[in-house]
Write a structure and sequence with these properties.
Radius of gyration: 24 Å
Strand order of the largest sheet: 1-2
Number of helices: 3
Helix content: 55-70%
Structural class: mainly alpha
Strand content: 5-15%
Amino acid sequence: MNILMIGSIIMMGLGIFLMIGRTFLPASVVIILGILMTLYSRYPSFKNMKAKTDPAKICMCSICNHTKSKICLDSRCHCCIIIKEDTVVGHHNSPLQ
């Protein structure tokens, strides 16, 4: 847990404590700030998770057995790249080739 996440938990706890004291406007502001701090502290992990599971970078071809599509594009595998005339246009992961 990083310091921003701990701070956001403390902010939300303070907001709940203020709600009990019936100061709703400051409590709602503090709770909203706590929620925003939580989302901000979790943003880098969401960004990394998206980068790890990008299906365009994975080669699922059963013929060439490469793991990354960049390897297929560099070695010009004819089983899973798209070639138009003499230039490589892209990569596909269709199992129904």
